[in-house]
Design brief:
The protein has ten helices and eleven strands. By secondary structure, it is of the alpha+beta class. Strand 3, helix 4 and strand 4 form a beta-alpha-beta unit.
């Protein structure tokens, strides 16, 4: 019997949080979310749940789901991000293939409607060691496109890295009055990164400084002589992670330097500041995720600053028809 796909809505937040927790107990990705996190995600104003989400229920229990994210401000290729999972007890029964086919069909339809003038690509993500996902991706015509390292830094160590602020710049705590200037700096800093498109106010308010995880007291900016943001570090704390692990983690959510100020130690100065501040505030560790092929050499910087790789993730991609 082919399972019935039904769109998700915000009333499914608790069921989705439960499913993800059951998946995490098996997959051990280190990613934890509570019901409030999931409700925030389902409330993203950019996501059309009625058209671009699908859930599979077994009785009253949500056992699988998928969401397709529509690309915006497409440049050379329309890349469709996704998120999906199948309950561990129901894997290898064709449900994953069903969800991948549904995601491909949705992405194909959206591309034909809105981005027919450029090639399209469907992306799926997972842990490098997830053999089931790798096999599913291979059968469905996906190939690895990008690798990501989840890195951690023990803040309880006796010595944390130190760094001086580059000449001509001054370090200041993040403040709301510089929020828009920081968004503009972020778009400038990441314009040459893989799959980056401009972050508008809606996304910024939803997933950056407007997210409940954002911690202004751990975040900092470097301003130039004209008061413009030359570099920034935005930090987060995920309550569900602390509840699941028993450790309080400072997440380096976003760190960027405008091209004109690169290679002068700006990122190092911001990192040193936030690591020290997080240590003072009682955090046990700092963590981040980095593109292994980051064009600015971020991986090497993090390693020099004392971060070590804890997990590896992969983005698979396949062309759309």
């Amino acid at each position: 019997m082919i399972p019935l796909l039904k769109p998700l809505d915000k009333t499914d937040a608790r069921d989705l949080a439960t499913l993800r927790a059951e998946v995490e107990r098996v997959d051990r990705t280190g990613l934890h979310e509570d019901e409030e996190d999931v409700l925030h995600e389902l409330g993203d104003p950019k996501v059309d749940l009625a058209r671009n989400s699908a859930g599979i229920w077994q009785g009253s229990r949500l056992v699988a789901y998928a969401v397709v994210y529509e690309p915006e401000r497409v440049r050379d290729i329309a890349r469709f991000g996704t998120t999906a999972a199948v309950h561990p007890d129901l894997r290898r029964q064709g449900i994953g293939t069903l969800l991948v086919d549904w995601m491909r069909d949705r992405a194909d339809a959206i591309r034909a409607e809105r981005h027919s003038d450029v090639p399209g690509e469907l992306l799926i993500d997972g842990a490098v060691g997830n053999a089931g996902l790798a096999a599913l991706a291979r059968r469905a015509g996906f190939e690895p496109r990008r690798y990501w390292f989840s890195m951690t830094h023990d803040l309880r160590a006796d010595r944390l890295p130190a760094a001086t602020v580059p000449a001509g710049l001054r370090l200041v705590p993040f403040e709301a009055g510089l929020d828009e200037a920081t968004r503009l700096a972020h778009n400038d800093a990441f314009r040459d990164h893989w799959n980056h498109t401009e972050t508008d106010r809606v996304d910024w308010d939803t997933w950056f400084t407007g997210d409940r995880s954002f911690r202004a007291g751990l975040s900092a900016l470097l301003l130039d002589a004209d008061g413009l943001v030359a570099a920034y570090l935005l930090a987060d704390e995920y309550v569900a992670d602390s509840a699941a692990t028993g450790h309080r983690s400072c997440t380096i959510g976003h760190l960027g330097t405008r091209p004109a100020h690169r290679n002068r130690g700006a990122a190092r100065a911001l990192l040193a500041h936030t690591l020290a501040e997080a240590g003072r505030q009682g955090y046990d560790n700092a963590e981040l995720i980095v593109d292994s092929a980051n064009p600015t050499g971020a991986l090497a910087l993090y390693e020099r600053m004392g971060f070590v790789t804890e997990r590896e993730f992969v983005t698979y991609g396949r062309p759309l028809d």
